[in-house]
Input
Amino acid sequence: MSNPEGKNTGRRVWRLSLAVCALLLIGGAAYRLTRPAEEIPTTPLPTVSVARPETGSIQVETSLIGQLTPGDVYYVTPKVAGEIREIYVSQGDMVEEGDPICRIDNQKQIDAAKISLDSAQVSVNTYQDSLNTAKANLDRMTALLNTGDISSQTYEQTKSAYDQAAAGLQGARLQLEAARLQYDTQVEYATVTAPVSGKVESESMEINAMASQSSQLCVITGDGAKKLVFSVTDRLLPALSVGDAIRVEKQGAEYEGTVTSIATMVDSMTGLYPVEAVVTDNGAIPSGASVKVYFVSERTEDALLVPTDAVYYDGGKTYVYTFSSISQEELAQTEGGSTSTVMEGNQAGTVHKIEVETGLSDGENTEILSGLEADAPVILTWTSQLYEDAQVQALPETESGAAEAATEAAAEAETEGAAGGDAA
Output
């Protein structure tokens, strides 16, 4: 016999199950329609700075050690012998040309010269009187000769006496000049003066000491340009010429100089070639001091130059990294499926590792001899993503001389880009 109550209960359970399933389907559909869309992850490309090579001159300086000596050295000696009565200078004093050094007592020589001068003056006066008398006689005899009152022979005798008196006066005058010069010289030599302006390097004078004409009173070095002496090898010798500019460095200060002499024969003691130059230091460097000498040993004109920091070395070879632009569509996805992005104003591109041959380098720039095109954008900044075909973003091109500023800008841009990716 059937059970109507049981059938009704089964129908209710079945209907309830259908209702629950319907609700679940509706809820799932509603969730799918109302939930936010899943965001696609993005990763900013590494940022670098680029610049094209420049064409210009590059030079390399060589530094050597040289010794500075006074350009002019004067050994002061007296021109007369005598006792030193006064001393006017000491070691280390600066003197001007003509300044007194000391006073020599040569009064005996002065007195003797004065006697000779006075004697010569007396002779001049005597010959002058004789000439005046001879002139008066000649005038009288000339008048008598014209009237026929004397013979020609008498006139010639008077004329001869006049000529002798005139010659005697001329000789006496010469002797007077010589005596006056001797007297003035003795007076002048009593005071020894500085022959040039400069510094008293040493002095060996004592009050009341006797000084002869061979005695060295003091040593004065001129205050003009000093002489620099240094030596070069045969390899460096062709790089120097007379008139070339050099730099001298002492305790952080620099001074200019000019090459004045280059030896063509090697020094047998050192095996080097001596070179001399003049240096104007205004007395800042003491004589005998050792200094650093800088001169241009190599130079190239119209060279292809890149910043030295953009040159890399690997396995005995030299490389630079260049940048080639790509479009937005060529950007690759990362292994995690994220999309690479480029900051506004920057250019996406790929990295190429180029082997090059280098020449001179001055620390700031390096000469590229071969392997690099003149218009190839060179990557100036380092990043771990520098390898062949790596994708990077480049800041707007800058001059290669601004590599340091570009490096800082690239680092800041990469940091900001990474922060932006983290925020996303």
Observations:
- The domain at 107-189 is CATH 1.10.287.470 (Helix Hairpins).
- The helical segments are 4-34, 107-147, 152-189, 403-423.
